Structures are given as structure tokens and as C-alpha cells.
């Protein structure tokens, strides 16, 4: 299930933003340019599979990556994708 997260650009965008930011839910809509239901759904999914954690302060809920292991997963996944793109380009040129 976790590896599927890296195939969906919206999840990768959320997690990438979380590497640098610790934001409340109401701020995410402006940062990502996405509608509230989509952001809420994606953050809830990421929290349920253990990649994102929350902290509640009054009515506000703050989101961050669960720990440095998730940051490492994201970095390695991004590196893998960029490493594989030149190979894919070469394969397409020879086909």
C-alpha cells in the first residue's frame, strides 16, 4: 500500500510539502491549490497508513511527516524516479 502512494502525484506533492512545512489543515488548500475535500481525504489516508501525524491545538489540526524514516522514503523514491527516467527515455528511443 505504501509504495502505491509514490505513484500518485498528489500524495507525493503533499509529502514533499510536509518535508519543509508543518501546516494546519486550513493552510494546505492555499499552498497546494487543491480543494478542501481532496486535501482532507489525502491527508487522512496518509495518516491512516502511518506516513503523516497530526497535532491538535484547539480547533486546528497540524500535519507533519511521521518521522525521518518517511522523509528518507520520500527522498529515495524521488531519487529512484529521476534515476529511472533516463533509462526509460533511452528505451523509448530504441523502440
Word description of this protein:
- This protein is of the alpha+beta class.
- It has one domain: Orthogonal Bundle (Arc Repressor Mutant, subunit A).
- It contains 5 helices and 3 strands; from the N terminus they run ααβααββα.
- It has a 3-stranded antiparallel β-sheet with strand order 1-3-2.
- Strand 2 and strand 3 form a beta hairpin.
- The longest helix has 27 residues.
- It is globular and about 50 Å long.
- The N and C termini lie far apart (32 Å).
Radius of gyration, rounded? Answer: 15 Å
Question: Gap between N and C termini, in Å?
Answer: 32 Å
Fraction of residues in helix: 55-70%
CATH topology: Arc Repressor Mutant, subunit A
CATH homology group: Winged helix-like DNA-binding domain superfamily/Winged helix DNA-binding domain
Structural class: alpha+beta
Main CATH class = Mainly Alpha
* Unreliable stretches covering 5 or more consecutive residues: none
Q: Number of DSSP helices?
A: 5
Q: Specify the biggest β-sheet.
A: 3 strands, antiparallel
Proportion of strand residues: 5-15%
Total number of distinct structural domains = 1
Order of helices and strands: HHEHHEEH
CATH architecture title: Orthogonal Bundle
Rounded average pLDDT:
79
Q: Reading side by side through the largest sheet, how are the strands ordered? A: 1-3-2
Number of strands: 3
Amino acid at each position: 500500500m505504501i509504495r502505491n502512494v509514490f505513484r500518485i502525484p498528489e500524495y507525493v506533492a503533499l509529502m514533499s510539502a510536509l518535508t519543509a512545512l508543518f501546516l494546519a489543515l486550513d493552510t494546505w488548500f492555499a499552498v497546494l491549490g487543491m480543494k478542501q475535500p481532496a486535501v482532507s481525504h489525502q491527508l487522512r489516508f496518509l495518516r491512516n497508513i502511518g506516513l503523516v501525524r497530526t497535532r491538535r491545538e484547539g480547533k486546528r489540526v497540524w500535519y507533519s511527516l511521521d518521522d525521518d524514516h518517511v522523509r528518507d522514503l520520500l527522498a529515495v523514491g524521488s531519487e529512484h524516479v529521476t534515476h529511472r527516467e533516463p533509462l526509460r527515455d533511452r528505451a523509448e528511443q530504441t523502440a
